[in-house]
Amino acid sequence: MTNTDAQVLIVGSGPTGLALACDLARRGVQFRIVDKARTYFIGSKGKGLQPRSLEVMDDFGIAGQILANGKFHIPFRGYDGSKVLGEKDIHEGRYPTPNVPYASPLITPQWRVEEALRELLERHGGRVEFGTELTGIEQDEGSVTATLRSDDGEERVCCRYLAAADGGRSFVRKALQVPFEGETWKDERMYVGDVRLRGLDREAWHSWPNHPDGWLALCPLPSTDTFQLQAQAPPGFEPEPSLELFQQWVNERTGGMDIKLTDAPWLSLYRVNVRMAARYRIGRIFLAGDAAHVHSPAGGQGMNTGIQDAYNLGWKLQRVLTGAPDALLDTYEEERLPVAANVLGLSTKLYRQITADDEGAIRRDAVTLQLGITYREMSLSARRGCPVEPFFGRSRSGCAGIGCRRQTDSALRSFPRATFHFIAVIRQRQRSMGERPGWCEAS
Ligand SMILES: Cc1cc2nc3c(=O)[nH]c(=O)nc-3n(C[C@H](O)[C@H](O)[C@H](O)COP(=O)(O)OP(=O)(O)OC[C@H]3O[C@@H](n4cnc5c(N)ncnc54)[C@H](O)[C@@H]3O)c2cc1C
Question: Which is more confident, 434 or 23?
Answer without folding.
Answer: 23
